[in-house]
Write a structure and sequence with these properties.
- By secondary structure, the chain is an all-alpha fold.
- Helices cover 70% and strands 0% of the residues.
- It contains eight helices and no strands.
- The longest helix is centred in the last third of the chain and has 55 residues.
- The protein starts with a helix and ends in a 16-residue tail after the last helix.
Length: 214
C-alpha cells in the first residue's frame, strides 16, 4: 500500500504546484505535471479506463466551453460533461493540449488569457490562473486521488484473502478442489467472490449469474 500512498501524496503536491504557479509559468507547470502523470502506469491506467466510460465523448468540448465563456464573462462557463469519468477525461485532454502549446513556444500569459478568462474576469493574471487551476484542473487530481485510494483498498482486501487462505483454509479449500476437479477453477473463484462480498463488495462478479447460466 506504500506505493499508492506515495502516489496520492505526489498528486497533491503536483496540484499545489499548479495552484501557486505564477501566470507566466502556468503552461510550463502544466507541461511538467502532464509529463509526470503520463510516466505513471497506475495513473495512465485510470485515465484509460475513464476514457472508455463514455464512448463518443467530444474531447474538444471543454476547450469550446472555455472559449465560449471567455472574454471576462466568468460565471457563464458550464461543464460539458455528465460524469466524473468524462470530466476527468476532458481535463486530461485539455492539459495535454496546453502542454503541447507550451512545447511549441506559446507564452504562459497567452494560454491563461485563452482558457482561464472563462472562469474569472480581472486584470491580475496570477489570480486568474489560480482560480482556473482550482475550478478546472483540480477535479482531475481529486478523481485520480480517489481512484488510487480505491485501488489501494481493493488490493488490501485481496491481500487479506491471500493471508486467510494461507493461514487458515488452504487444506480445506484444496479438498473441495479435489472433490470437484472438473470445476476446480470455479471452486476457487466462488470462494474468492464470497470473501469479496463479505468485505462489502456488492457485485463481486465479472460475469453475472442467472438460473440459465451466464
Amino acid at each position: 500500500m506504500r506505493y499508492q500512498q506515495d502516489l496520492q501524496v505526489s498528486l497533491r503536491d503536483r496540484l499545489r504546484r499548479l495552484l501557486v504557479a505564477p501566470g507566466e509559468d502556468a503552461s510550463h507547470e502544466v507541461r511538467l505535471v502532464t509529463d509526470w502523470i503520463a510516466q505513471r502506469p497506475a495513473l495512465r491506467a485510470i485515465l484509460a479506463e475513464a476514457e472508455r466510460a463514455e464512448p463518443g465523448l467530444d474531447h474538444e468540448g471543454l476547450v469550446s466551453a472555455l472559449r465560449q465563456g471567455g472574454g471576462g464573462l466568468g460565471r457563464s462557463f458550464r461543464w460539458p460533461s455528465q460524469t466524473d469519468e468524462s470530466r476527468a477525461t476532458l481535463i486530461w485532454h485539455l492539459m495535454r493540449r496546453i502542454a503541447a502549446e507550451d512545447q511549441d513556444g506559446t507564452m504562459g500569459t497567452q494560454i491563461v488569457l485563452t482558457y482561464a478568462r472563462a472562469v474569472r474576469s480581472g486584470s491580475n493574471i496570477n489570480d486568474t490562473w489560480r482560480e482556473f487551476a482550482e475550478r478546472i484542473l483540480r477535479p482531475l487530481f481529486d478523481y485520480l486521488d480517489e481512484r488510487v485510494g480505491t485501488e489501494s483498498s481493493v488490493l488490501y482486501t485481496l491481500e487479506r484473502y491471500v493471508r486467510r487462505v494461507e493461514w487458515f483454509e488452504r487444506e480445506e479449500l484444496h479438498q473441495r478442489y479435489l472433490a470437484n476437479r472438473q470445476n476446480g477453477e470455479g471452486v476457487y473463484n466462488l470462494d474468492l467472490r464470497k470473501f469479496l462480498f463479505s468485505e462489502g463488495i456488492n457485485m463481486p462478479f465479472s460475469e453475472a449469474k442467472s438460473a440459465s447460466g451466464l
